[in-house]
Amino acid sequence: MPAVNALDIPEVRGDGVHDDTSGLQAALDSGADVVRLPMPPAHYAISRTLVMHSGQTLLVDRRAVIRLADHAHAHMLTNADHDTLSRGITVRGGIWDGNNAHQTCEYHQKGRDRRVPYDPARYLGVLLQFNNVEDLHLSGLTLKDPETFGIQIANIRRFTVEDITFDYNMLRGNMDGVHLQGNCHQGRIANLKGATNDDQVALNADDGSMYEISRGPITDIQIDGLWAENGYTAVRLLSAGSPIRRVRISNLFGSFRYYLTSFGHHNAHPGEPSEISDVVIDGVFCAKPTQPTDSSQPWNEAAVRRHPFFWVEPGTHVRNLLVSNVVRTERLEHAPPCIHVSEGAHVEHLGVSQASVVNLAPTPLDFLHNEGSIESLSMANVHCRAEGGSPCGSLVRNDGSIARRHLSNLTSHNVAGAGDEDAQ
User: Fold this and answer.
1) Distance between alpha carbon 250 and the CA centroid of its chain, in Å?
2) Domain-by-domain residue ranges, the chain?
3) What is the pLDDT of residues 258-271, one digit of tens each?
4) Rounded distance, CA 194 to CA 176, Å?
5) Per-residue b or e along 60-69, where b marks 16 or more CB atoms closer than 10 Å to that residue's CB
6) How distant, in Å, are the alpha carbons of 284, 328, 409, 413, 416 from that of 356?
7) How far, CA to CA in Å, does 331 sit from each of 1, 339, 390, 422?
8) pLDDT of 423 over the 80 cut
9) Alpha carbons 182 and 91: distance in angstroms, whole number
10) How confident is the model at residue 420 (pLDDT cuts 50, 70, 90)?
C-alpha cells in the first residue's frame, strides 16, 4: 500500500477538539509505506502514543501541529518491536507539542526515586522515543514543550537526526534535546537550533536512572551544527561502565550557560570506569552569555561563571581529545577558561590548535586550566589578546601534572596594557 492521507480517514478531524489517536494509528497500521499528515483545520490531538512500523515513513506538513492532549501522560511517537528490531523508519516534519503545562511525568513527581529501573510502561516525558531500530531518520521537526527530552533513542544503528528546532518554554528541568543512550552506533546529528533546558545533545552510554533503556557503547557519532543563545549545555558525553568512542563535534554557535562539551560519569554507576576515546571538536564560535535572552529562560550568573567551555569531570578517563578552530570573544566578568581538566581526571593526549580568544572583560581569562593529569599536551597557533584595558590570563595554568608538552606559536597580547607576553 503506497500512501495514506490521514485527513481521508473519518476518525481524523484535526480540529483540535476531537481525539485523532485512533484514526492516526489506523493509518499507521494500514500497511502503508507512507502516511501523510497535511495541515489540519486546527491541530491533530493525540491521547496515546502513536506507533510506527518497519519500512514506514511519516510525512508531516512542517507547519502541522500534533499536540498531546491534556493529562494524556504519554510519549507521542515510538516504534513497534522494541524487543526485536525495527528497520527503516523515517519521520519528516511537524510541530510535536508535548503540552507540558498539562502533563506530569514520574521524573517530576516529588518524592519519586529516579534511580529505579527503566520500565517501558512509565511515562518519562519524552516526545519521540525510538528503541532498537536500524536505519532511523528524523528530520525537519519542531519539538515543543516536552516534560523532559525531545528525542530519546537507544539501541540504534545507522541513524540521522537533522534540521531540528527546539521551541521550549523552560517550564521543566531536564529538558534535553536529542538524548542518546547505550548501543547507538554510526549516526549523524546535524543542524539543531534553539535553547534547551538541559543538554542540547546527550551521549549517555550509561544513565543510572529510570531513563536507562540500555547500557552499552556509543560509537562513530558525528554532531555538526548546533545553535543556541543562552543554551544550557551543547553536548554531554557520559560514560560510567560503557565506553564512548570516535565522536566528532563540529560548528558550535551562540552562547551556553554551562558547557559546550562535558566529559564525565555523573556518578551514574558509582565505581565503574569512565572511558571516552577519540573525540574531535572542530569549529567553535561561542561565548558565555552575559544575561538571559528573555524572561522565560533560567539565569544564574554564578553558575555561568563556574562552567568552562570544555570540562573533564573528576574520575573521567579521556584517551584522545583534539580541539581546533576556536573563536571566542568574551565579555563576561570572571569568565571560566576554555578548557578545564579537573583534579582526579586523566587525559592521555590533549591537542589544541588554531584558537583565537579576545577578552573584553575586566578580569583575566585563562585558556587551559589543568588540575588533573595530562600525559601529553600539544598546543599550536593559539592566540589570546585582551582589549580595552582588560588583563590577560594564562595560556596554560597548571595546578596538576603534565608529563610532556609540545607548545608552538602561542601568544598572549594586551592591546592597551604594558606590552606583549609571548609563550613558547
Assistant:
1) 13
2) 79-97+129-423
3) 999 999 999 999 99
4) 11
5) beeebbbbbb
6) 10, 6, 12, 11, 18
7) 59, 17, 10, 23
8) no
9) 22
10) very low
Region 387-405 average pLDDT: 91
Whether 35 shows a pLDDT value over 80: the answer reads yes
The closest of 226, 244, 243 to 235, measured between CA atoms, is 226
State the pLDDT at residue 387. Answer: 87
HSE, CB side, 13 Å, CA atoms: give it for residue 228: 33
Of 80, 83, 38, 72, the closest CA to residue 56 belongs to: 80
Q: Tell me how far CA of residue 57 lies from CA of 1, 96, 297, 334, 387, in angstroms.
A: 12, 16, 35, 50, 54
Task: Find the length of the chain.
Answer: 424
CB-based contact 296:325 (threshold 8 Å): no
Task: Show Cβ contacts of residue 121 under 8 Å, excluding neighbours closer than 6 positions.
Answer: none
* Torsion angle of the four alpha carbons 255, 261, 266, 270, in this order, in degrees rounded to the nearest 10: -170
- The pLDDT value recorded for residue 59 is 98
Exposure class string for 171-185: b at 16+ Cβ within 10 A, else e: ebebbbbbbbbbbbb
Cell of 410: 602561542
The CA–CA distances, whole Å, from 193 to 42, 225, 229, 256 equal 25, 8, 9, 13
Q: Decide if domain 79-97+129-423 falls under CATH 2.160.20.
A: yes
Q: Burial code of 265-293, b = ≥16 C-beta within 10 A, e = fewer? A: bbebbeebebbbbbbbbbbbebbbbeebe
Q: Are 181 and 154 in contact (CB under 8 A)?
A: yes
11-26 pLDDT per residue, tens: 999 999 999 999 999 9
In the Cβ-directed half-sphere of 82, how many Cα atoms lie within 13 Å? 14
CB distance 407 to 423 below 8 Å: yes
Residue for cell digits 521550549?
168
In angstroms, the CA 129 to CA 390 distance is 48
Phi and psi at residue 301, to the nearest 5°: -65, -35
Please write the tens of the pLDDT for every residue from 288-341: 998 876 666 676 777 888 999 999 999 999 999 999 999 999 999 999 999 999
